[in-house]
């Protein structure tokens, strides 16, 4: 029997996953507990050993990655749960066992559980690499590496106002007025910046939410940033953006 821990701060999502586990996987998975924050999960893991963790990427002001960074040795398997596909891609990149997009689909959960059974602990080495990477990120102090022909510039993510896609290039616009162009796609940097308060408002634009000063209404509308720049918001991104900004 696989002993599992669910870490999720959204009650509805937690109850949905619990229901599927109890209904479809009661013979193979025993859900030990549901915790809704990093501190609660850490306290539980001091006392209990688990084989599998269902880990939400966003846990209030913290992330599931921060939890992993504080655990030390990781000797269990992980299935990330996230409402953001970008985060799911990041989880795969960092060698997670599997991921589920919310709202969790019953059949996708079954496939993920089957993978866990077949894997049988083989992902431990990959997860240890994940932990080491986040230790390295902490040392960098939330900086992002921007390569150029002459070297690599390390820029604090909070110094970035916005990023603009230009086919296979990305333009970074900084608070001090500088513009840095890197020969990588915006998608590659989106994966790194989303956990630090950035939001993809349009196919061509990723913005620092902390620098938003005004939302101008329209079909999708537009945002005015702290430097006066106006950035269009795609209509399909408007609803989620308003939720993130705390307005309807």
From TrEMBL:
Source taxon at top rank: Bacteria
4-aspartylphosphate: residues carrying this PTM: 56
The cross-references to PROSITE patterns, in alphabetical order and at most eight, read: HTH_LYTTR (PS50930), RESPONSE_REGULATORY (PS50110)
Where is each Response regulatory domain found? 3-117
| Keyword terms | DNA-binding, Phosphoprotein
One annotated GO molecular function is: DNA binding
The HTH LytTR-type domain extends over 144-247
Coiled-coil spans are none
Matching Pfam families: LytTR (PF04397), Response_reg (PF00072)
Q: State what protein this is by name.
A: LytTR family DNA-binding domain-containing protein
Which species does the entry assign this protein to? Algoriphagus confluentis
């Amino acid at each position: 029997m696989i002993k599992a821990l669910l870490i999720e701060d959204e009650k509805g999502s937690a109850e949905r996953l619990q229901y599927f586990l109890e209904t479809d996987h009661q013979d193979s998975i025993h859900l030990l507990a549901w915790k809704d924050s990093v501190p609660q999960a850490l306290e539980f893991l001091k006392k209990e050993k688990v084989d599998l963790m269902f880990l939400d990427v966003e846990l209030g002001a913290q992330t599931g990655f921060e939890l992993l960074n504080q655990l030390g040795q990781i000797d269990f398997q992980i299935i990330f749960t996230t409402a953001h596909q970008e985060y799911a891609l990041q989880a795969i990149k960092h060698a997670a066992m599997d991921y589920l997009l919310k709202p969790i689909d019953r059949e996708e959960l079954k496939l993920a559980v089957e993978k866990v059974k077949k894997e049988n602990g083989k992902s431990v080495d990959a997860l240890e690499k994940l932990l080491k990477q986040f230790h390295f990120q902490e040392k960098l102090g939330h900086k992002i590496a921007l390569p150029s022909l002459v070297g690599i510039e390390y820029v604090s993510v909070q110094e970035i106002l916005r990023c603009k896609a230009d086919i296979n290039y990305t333009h970074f616009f900084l608070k001090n007025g500088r513009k840095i162009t890197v020969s990588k796609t915006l998608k590659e940097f989106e994966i790194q910046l989303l956990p630090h308060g950035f939001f993809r408002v349009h196919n061509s634009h990723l913005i620092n939410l902390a620098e938003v000063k005004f939302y101008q209404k329209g079909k999708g509308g537009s945002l005015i940033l702290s430097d006066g720049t106006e950035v269009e918001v795609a209509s399909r991104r408007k609803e989620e953006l308003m939720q993130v900004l705390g307005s309807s």
